[in-house]
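Why show two proteins at once? Because comparison is the fastest way to build intuition. When a single record is shown, students tend to memorize it. When two are placed side by side, the eye starts asking what differs. So, the first record is below.
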Amino acid sequence: MKLIVGLGNPGKKYENTRHNMGFMVVDAFSDIARIDVDKEVFKGLLGRGTVFGQDILLFKPTTYMNLSGEAVSLIANYFKIDLEDIIVIYDDMALMPGTIRLRETGSSGGQKGMQNIIDHLKSEHIKRIRIGIGEPKYDAIDHVLSKPVDEEKELIDKAIQIAVDALKEILKSNFKKAMSLYNGEHI
């Protein structure tokens, strides 16, 4: 079983903000996979289904970004999911809009939600898909909690679709193949 986690902040106030890229990818993937992510359990929203013959869980923690590890550890422990079968999707200011990066391991790069997951699972060996939101012009908090503007939004929407395609490839073949196909700019 694979656990696909999209990070974000719950509530209308945060919908479609840069910090909710993980939620947006899970929502887009759930639409094509026809999996409803609406069961309130484990401090988040859960959906379960089968895609390309793989049993998957789609999960959106509702703990707020910085406490995502609480929810992820609860669900991973309950379903006894191995670290190698967890994929976390989140925003990254170090990447330009329109860019995604897949990594099999590494530090959080300062992303507090990912750091909280690393802390709770006690490992950096967690696969992730990072969605580029670009560097802030002024304040980082204002940047991640605001909505992308015009041409930037178009780039981010494309990156979300690329991330969905990468997830499909991961489930069809494997993470390394998806890395070779989808790392980098695709605009």
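Second record. Ask yourself what differs from the first in the token line.
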Amino acid sequence: MEIKWEEGFKISADIENNTVHISANKEGLKSLSNILLSLSEEKNGSHIHLDEYNSLEDGSTELIIEKVDD
């Protein structure tokens, strides 16, 4: 899966009171939309892992986005 990351993106993910909270700057939101569009074209079960070691800001909670059956 090819993902287009916007230059200067910042994305973080946290869990607050049993709620997933995703924060992103403009470039981060565009990057997330690029991820979702790319993932929508993949087969069911395809997924992407994002964490502080892979694209998210330091201290972020791991985020897994998966395509499931239509």
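One difference worth noting in the second protein: Residues 11-66 form one domain.
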